[in-house]
Amino acid sequence: MNNAVAGFSKLTKEEKINWIANEYFANPAEAIATIKQYWNTDAKLQQLHDEFIENTISNFYLPMGIAPNFLINDKYYSVPMVIEESSVVAAAAKSAKFWSTRGGFKATVLNTEKIGQVHFLFKGHHDVLEAFFNSVKENLIASTENITANMQKRGGGITSLELRNKTNELEHYFQLHATFETKDSMGANFINSCLEQLAKTLKEEAQNYKAFNELEKDITVVMSILSNYVPNCIVRAEVSCKVEELAEKKIENPQLFAEKLVQAVRIAELEPFRAVTHNKGIMNGVDSVVLATGNDFRAVEAGVHAYASRIGQYSSLSHAKIENGVFTFWMEIPLALGTVGGLTSLHPLVKMALEILGKPSAPELMQIVAVVGLAQNFAALRSLTTTGIQEGHMKMHINNILNQYQTTSEERKAIKAHFESNTISHSAVVTFIENLRK
Fold first, then answer.
1. pTM for the structure as a whole
2. pLDDT for residue 304 is more than 60
């Protein structure tokens, strides 16, 4: 049928579910049962989830795992990770264990500056606008004090405000470019509230500015919004050891391994087609911790990938070198994260994740997230330059195939025993299952 629906948001939850089931499924009763199967049995907890977003019909679950043994700045962490992709948690844990015996990870927050902008049009002389801005700048900032008061008590607030002339790129286009310190909150709502007040005061002050003519007084605010590109909210994560200390069971020649890994990173620095997949692996680690701690992984993704393109070409986020017999692997990425506000005080598992991490501050969480991204990248590069990526991945992925074909416990034993000494692929596993059932 696929018909349009009027007033969907005004329907009750049951009515929404019934409409979806009857509109899109041949067996509505089965669809309703599936939707309700994922409801929380605790009605109060389900209501909490229902109110996170609009038009809720059910919960969409992702696995939450733990990667232990992360030694970061001489402190051990067990890191919660939320992700659906096979082998990610295992790879992170393996990297954590590997580096825990080689000095662990070092992480440093280089800056925590957030950015927001008021985008507006001004059809007058640039010098007149500059003089106007300089005369009202203090009033603009003062007008936000009812919003910034609590943040200022915690050491945050608006740290700078400047006028930017963008008329060379778009006619009549200017910005109020503001920087913020938001301490342990990610700060999106705080920043946007400040920006909207700045925009309101800008228009009011323009109406009262005597040096403006009537056209110049008519400032058009296009929008006021924070930026998820935070090139000055940067954290560095790093590991290093003597080349010979890289030796382990699958790294018999540590010098050759280090050289190949450095070359693999260099290729990702130069070749965008490789860099995208290289950085996607980093984000496997980053996003999973960002999700587990109730932060906005879409904002993080957008900001990180913009940062990867800052030189005019998309490039690797991580880097590697060998100097004086020492192997060093590092990464600097922008991460605007929070440990207060948003879901951090609402979602029970988010609160638990932050407890497991020792109730970190926002800068400490930045360090943990960056380290997990670097660990994930190292795990991928180690596999790529030694056994290949599929060996470990398919060993973890085989469970998905077995679940897809609803294998019994006896079938699972036979399948796993067979593939301990045979190459795993989707088709090979399916063929083996079919032969087993004949």
1. 0.88
2. yes
